[in-house]
Amino acid sequence: MVSIYDIEGIERLRSRHAVQPHRIKLFRNALFKNVLERDDALATLPENAQAAFRSEVAFQSLELAERRDSEIDGATKLLFRTADGALVESVILRPKTGRTSLCISSQVGCACACGFCATGRMGFLRDLSTAEILDQIVQAARMVKPEGRSIRNIVFMGMGEPLLNTGNLFQSLELLRAAPLFNYAGSRLMVSSVGIPHAMEELARRFPEIRQAISLHSARQEVREQLMPLARKYPLKQLRKSLAALSANGKVMVEYLMLDGVNDRDGDLQALETYLRGIPVHINLIPFNAFEGCTLRGTPRPGREAFATRLKQAGFDTTLRHSFGTDIAAACGQLAQGRQTRS
Ligand code: SF4
Predict the structure, then answer these.
(1) Cα 138 to ligand 1 centroid, rounded to whole Å
(2) Which of 196, 265, 303, 333 maximizes the CB count within 10 A of its CB?
(3) Active site residue: 37, 63, 89, 103, which one?
């Protein structure tokens, strides 16, 4: 079988069945730009080639296992099942700006074991393939199409650490940028990582236009190590050099999950200001979505607002993120972990 995302494989198939190149272009436009279902896209090919493409091309690698729609804010959580029975999540976000975003996964489970993350509790199962990464986008795009929407922004911020699956991440980014397939502008793509300096720098070298976010969550080494075990391997000092280098391509997004009594005190704020001073960044303060088995608590809203105000007064571009989908377990890994635990 040839994956639908395999440009060379599809070219070989085209040549073998003597399909005109412009018919392949129509076929790909039907699939990736108009996000038609498989059979409707196949109808754009000559009749004599349709059966071969139907039987020789792998169009889909994920099956939708569950869909949950928030009644609060329009977020939709999708739970997909892979061919080997693993579960991965994606989240469709419909902010008031009308710019629909999709948060996708890059691995099944995660080895990083961050203390605030349900996926981290699952441990690492395996990397997602390029087809499994891209399939989340195609299926979500088909889902929002009847609403008159398209997926405008894509963030690698779901299950798994994308920079620990760089082979498939980079291939996915290339295909997302490729004109014959998705044709996304790099500015609409964002990769969020736990902070792996050499991989962040490689990503910036290969895809300078793609935005990067880093999960900082504390500018105090001991606190960060408690929250994120990988911080021991990649200390804040080393990370700062990469952040400074990356900011040459544009502002880096700094994600800061606000945890009550853990990283929201005066000393934390001062450490954050000192750490980021002189680097062009955008700080995104994130409310914490509690989940079963986790003893951490989120900073109450007034505390988050005060933290944001002080960062702004100190001259930092800061946003206070709204928490999407609190009624549908939209935080990374909550739904998959819940399913896995129940089964
Ligand atoms: S926050 Fe990201 S890197 Fe950390 S355990 Fe969860 S999925 Fe892995």
Answers:
(1) 24
(2) 333
(3) 89
